[in-house]
Amino acid sequence: MNQATLAADAPDLAQAQADMRAAYWHGAFGVLCSALAWGVAAAVAALGKPQQAVWTLLIAGMFIFPLSMGLAKLAGRAGMHEKTNPLGRLAMFSTFGLLAGCALALGVATQKLEWFFPTMLLVIGLRYLVFTRVYGLRIYQACGLALAAAGLLLGALLFAPSPELKPLGPLLGAATGAIIETLFGITLFVQGRTGR
């Protein structure tokens, strides 16, 4: 099954998406692991260490995929899609966009630290829009748009923050990511119990 076949043959696309859903429990573990990374970053920000919170999110983010694969396997799923599934390549290519977005967010943070988390909310939100195609689930559109909208709103709020609000920016951003992803991750987990 190649990209041209997949684009032209809807049953092949549906089969590829079903393989991704079955292997990764609808992606629920990835979203929940991501929520955990946001949550740990929020805890670090709450301790008054915003720069460490930035690095916490980035470093914890490196463990999301391997941890989610392991959890999927523990839950009785394959934890890996079929090697011939072209949607695996789409997911992999979206990782390059994610890495570029992380670099952009770091660059933004050097100028305005409180904008790091809103930028990351946008970056992660846009990646989840790709997952709409990978998993064939519209819930990823809702999740991606919710994260992106939160990033835009929080960025606007922190454009010229008051002295009282400025130190709370990293905590607000990280906690927002944790809450949104936890809610969608739980929903995906419940939906994914069927394995289809």
TrEMBL record:
Swiss-Prot/TrEMBL keywords: Membrane, Transmembrane, Transmembrane helix
Coiled coil: none
InterPro entries, per database record: DUF7010
Residue intervals passing through the bilayer: 23-47, 53-75, 87-109, 115-132, 139-159, 171-190
Pfam families registered for this protein in UniProt: DUF7010
Name listed for the protein in its UniProt record: FtsH-binding integral membrane protein
